[in-house]
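Hey, can you fold this?
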Amino acid sequence: MSGHSKWSTIKHQKGAADAKRGVLFTKLSREIALAVREGGGVDPDMNFKLRLALDRAKSNNMPQDSISRAVKRGSGEGSDGESLEQVTYEGYGPGGGAILLQAVTTNRNRTAAEVRSAFNRGGGNLGESGCVAWNFELRGVVTVDIEDEERAEELGLLAIDAGAEDIQIDEGVLEIYSPIESLQDVQKSVAAENVSVRSAELSMVPKTTIELADKEAEQTLRLLDTLEELDDIQKAFTNADFSPEVLERYQTG
């Protein structure tokens, strides 16, 4: 598909930020709390956003006590007095790739200053609201680890029957794209095939991508890493795409 960006898969493979378990669990906790507050309550069978957040937390071995506290925080129990706020930041990386950030913060001014500093140090520019959001759309994305390309194509067809719109097969990874309302059905159809589902989530997918020259590509990858390591940044998205040579250096560096 035209909007596929390898950043959506390689950031999982690199896993540098995930090694910082405390930071990761803080982000997962906020994701759960917001899902409870905005998705329709504490029952994951009735709140699909919460179910996605819980699945992600469990796949990252988040302790059950921490999960329970996050659910209570979202429902108003055990509140620590801090109010969580969702904020979106938009900007450009070196070479002009669009970058869209989803943040959850208790202090908007602090987060804005950290994001601006990261952009400046990384050779990018923090832009105005709306400067790149037009190039992204919210979609469901199911990611499956699978080496057999023929089997991946079969799974893709099953997913399309369940409501998916597009698939992308790349180096042992199958990505399935769907409308947000079809994500649950697509996830169930794939999970029923006894394959390794890496993730199922709502993601901002670029409508078009831009391939960067090697130098700018490496700078952009480092900037994205820096941004995702900020405590308040939940997710980073880009329409920048990267050559296989750059990706190999990045993943082994």
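Oh, and this one too while you're at it.
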Amino acid sequence: MKTIIHDLGDAYNARLTSKAERVIFADGKYAPCQGCFRCWTGTPATCVLKDVLQEACRVLGTSDDLTVITANTYGGWSAPVKNLLDRSIGVSTPLSTYRGRQMHHTLRYGKKGTLRVIVYGSITAAERETLTLMAGRNALNMGYTEYAVDFCETAEEAGERV
């Protein structure tokens, strides 16, 4: 299954739906992660907050390929995308293991395919480096075996690159 997370706006949902089985619009109309960790232990892979992201862990955990389209925000995810990714911590368990010769949380759903990040907006060389490093670390933490980062100038261009 392929999933797309984006912050491009509601108008892009129809266009992106033809390119993936699941499209999640990071519109920010949901609660932030409360840090309770119940999605890890109490209600595995299900957030206790009852909103559109309650099953985000399961959706992202079972996605073979994930594309994240985000505005550049100081070399990081946009706030709505970051909030959505924070709410998906339940894709792993609280147990630890070694992956890539480093300690990481055990994956709840196993290894996946590719994490692709498409970043749009004005971006400096240092921000490009930070985003590329962050995408690689997120890919490893979420169980993706490969990752790629694309940069473009506008949201329209980002929407067409999927």
